[in-house]
């Protein structure tokens, strides 16, 4: 299995390392920035680095476009249409139609926030797989299964839903953490005080459905506490708006 | 140290066990429901159970009111005003004034969501301590420090802020998990797919400030993806409303 990594960011880096560790051959690493391509390629026995899309090798079995969503069209345009290898992107929100010039294409999308410097087991991450044919889906499953046992086939609509789900649980939760951080900071309280409850909140839904572990004043429809909180937040219109909207939705769900 | 536990719920149960393990004596457990008082008291060598507020012993050194916020006034009214022991509640949103009839009073508030059947180390939970005098605050610190080394003194306003912060990071995040659960369920996708990213999101803010690990379409101000998501959510007004509000606030923070 000869793999061309297009991109040198978090996803390219973690995937490349997992593939290489399993014994697949990373033959080339492309990055817009040569130094980044060099740095990643350096870790693989037989990989050449390039910053030229024209130099991308045509004998790969698998081309992984692990770049930002906005960079995908440029890369696709630059790649030769007659590539025989499988060309896949890793984006949650990008349609497969973008890869239609290639005979063999697909998607490997991890609904996970992958940071380069955080140790992370690729084997624990689920990947959503899509192929432009049943044969290519099967091929992707075969390629991915040794490094990522939690792969599932997923059509473009399901992938979009997962992407939206990931935005809710990751990006939006992190904004809530940020709101709490700001509140505590204003009153000289260390954010450390909330770190255990953040872990506990994430742990609880590993075993039980979120609706079954909902707690707090909104869950109890405890108007006295809710009003105390809103009264306090009246100095901070934006946080008050979040508080009101999310409280109303918890109350509604428990009616 | 002779302790009277008033309440038999999650907080009473975890605190009682930690105190007893350290060697404090739980002399009585009160619950509105006798069977619950019996069940908790059973675990302590010398504890008697009661469901009668009139029977509460007067020789305790510490009375812990670990009951729902709404039950606190009734309990306080029923307790004799001339108790010499320290009377504390565990509520984030209840003013200390509610305990003013007692000579010695205070608060031990854990900004944590404590579930009875989830194993949890009291020693890892921060507690916010407040006393009605410097002497009583010092006494509470002395009593708590062997079982909970992360105690900090905290006035009523700071406690309210922590409670609001806990609502944001716990109750509201859990609502976001629930939203994602509902979305996935509608399209036959298992919630399992998002469990790793939920853990990852919580882990990231243990080491870094939330603002430094914010990712996603709102963070990048990626209007194409945001519009794709909103277009999809147009069938689900409530989730669309959450999506719009939280996205706008992330964008604003990164301007």
Please tell me about this protein's structure.
2 copies of one chain form a homodimer. By secondary structure, the first copy, chain A, is an alpha/beta fold. Chain A folds into 2 domains: 2-154, NAD(P)-binding Rossmann-like Domain (Rossmann fold); 159-253, Orthogonal Bundle (N-(1-d-carboxylethyl)-l-norvaline Dehydrogenase, domain 2), CATH 1.10.1040.20. Chain A has 8 helices and 8 strands. The first copy, chain A, has an 8-stranded mixed beta sheet with strand order 3-2-1-4-5-6-7-8, covered by helices on one side. The termini of chain A are far apart. In chain A, 51% of the residues are buried.
Give me some keywords for this one.
homodimer, 255 residues, alpha/beta, Rossmann fold, N-(1-d-carboxylethyl)-l-norvaline Dehydrogenase, domain 2, eight-stranded mixed β-sheet, 8 helices, 8 strands, 14% strand, OxRdtase/DH_put_Rossmann_dom (chains A, B), DUF2520 domain-containing protein (chains A, B), 6-PGluconate_DH-like_C_sf (chains A, B), NAD(P)-bd_dom_sf (chains A, B)
């Amino acid at each position: 299995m000869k793999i061309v990594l297009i991109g040198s960011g978090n996803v390219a880096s973690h995937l490349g390392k997992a593939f290489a560790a399993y014994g697949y051959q990373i033959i080339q690493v492309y990055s817009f920035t040569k130094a980044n391509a060099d740095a990643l390629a350096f870790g693989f026995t037989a990989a050449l680095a390039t910053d030229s899309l024209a130099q991308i090798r045509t004998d790969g079995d698998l081309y992984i476009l692990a770049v930002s969503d906005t960079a995908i069209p440029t890369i696709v345009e630059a790649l030769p249409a007659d590539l025989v290898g499988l060309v896949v992107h890793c984006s949650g929100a990008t349609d497969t139609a973008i890869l239609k010039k290639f005979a063999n294409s697909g998607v490997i999308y991890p609904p996970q926030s992958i940071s380069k410097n955080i140790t992370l087991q690729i084997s624990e991450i689920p990947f959503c797989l899509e192929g432009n044919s049943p044969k290519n889906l099967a091929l992707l499953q075969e390629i991915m299964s040794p490094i990522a046992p939690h792969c599932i086939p997923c059509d473009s609509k399901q992938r979009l839903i997962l992407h939206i789900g990931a935005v809710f649980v990751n990006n939006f939760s992190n904004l809530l953490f940020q709101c709490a951080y700001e509140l505590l900071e204003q009153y000289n309280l260390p954010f450390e005080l909330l770190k255990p409850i953040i872990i506990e909140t994430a742990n609880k839904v590993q075993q039980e459905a979120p609706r079954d572990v909902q707690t707090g004043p909104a869950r109890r429809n405890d108007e006295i506490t809710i009003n105390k909180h809103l009264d306090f937040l009246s100095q901070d219109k934006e946080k008050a708006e979040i508080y009101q909207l999310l409280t109303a939705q918890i109350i509604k769900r428990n009616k």
